[in-house]
Amino acid sequence: MVPDVLREAERLHEDAKLVAPQAEPWKFQISYTNVVIFGYLHLAGIYGLLFCVSKAHWATLFFSFILLVASVIGVTAGAHRLWSHRSYKANLPLQIILMLFHSLSGQYTAFNWARDHRLHHKYSDTDADPHNATRGFFYSHIGWLLVVKHPEVKRRGEAIDLSDLLRNPVLTFQRKNVVLILSLVCYIMPTTVPMFFWGETFHTAWHIMALRFVLCLNFVSLINSAAHTFGTKPYDKNIMPTQNMSVTLATLGEGFHNYHHVFPFDYRAAELGNNTFNLTTKFIDFFALIGWASDLKTVGQESIVRRAERTGDGSGSWKEECKVVPGGLKSG
Which of 91, 107, 158, 310 is most buried when burial is the number of CB atoms within 10 A of its CB? Predict the structure, then answer.
């Protein structure tokens, strides 16, 4: 299994070289609909932040925090590690949970998310990358959602293999009913539960909901922006993705991004089983323990360390945890 994972990672890295960053001049075409929607939600979220320290019931804040964690997990454990990278398998009940969690994030469908993410890995930081980090921090963070996609993204996207996603009944159900599901799960339920169960006002509940949406969106977006800008590169110094602990904390474990781009099919998305702040990995491990998740793919320590020695920048926790010596890998 490990050699197949390593070969696939190397293939994706080589494919990315086929599309040069900024290969052709391109003029942004603003999507005014998206500007209005995201602009309103951000303003409403900021307004909701004021309610957090004034009007909001403590139960509303606690409930919203739980929903925030669930929505991030829906992206990281669901759309990302399960459906984008197939780094583990999930049974039907777990897939339904993750689909609902992802819907809670408001980030459209898991199918669309996985399609864009597969493009991102295959053509990372090139014109075919939906959130190409060579265009700047704002563009890779949220600006790419406010403009029409680059023609190269559309062209290369037509050749991406999505057959496994198209066959998935859970994702098909979400795609066919996306407006209804997102309306109920992301907007209506988080607003009405505080109103009916502990008397929160609609005005407060709605704006706290908007705050949760904005936090989830921006936390996840840090993977595309901050984790392609700030940090160390212990596994491959020749690519933009970095290791960034702040992103790890905000995204429940997705900040080990240099590692992830080198070994994208490791379900942990982190080196050496680094689970201290990796709540997403702990989530998957729990469901593996009860038999709902299986076939958890990992990369061996020796392969990880040797890759770090070959192409890394010399940083990384692996130095303190293990060493490569003649005859194999030994604990340090």
Answer: 107
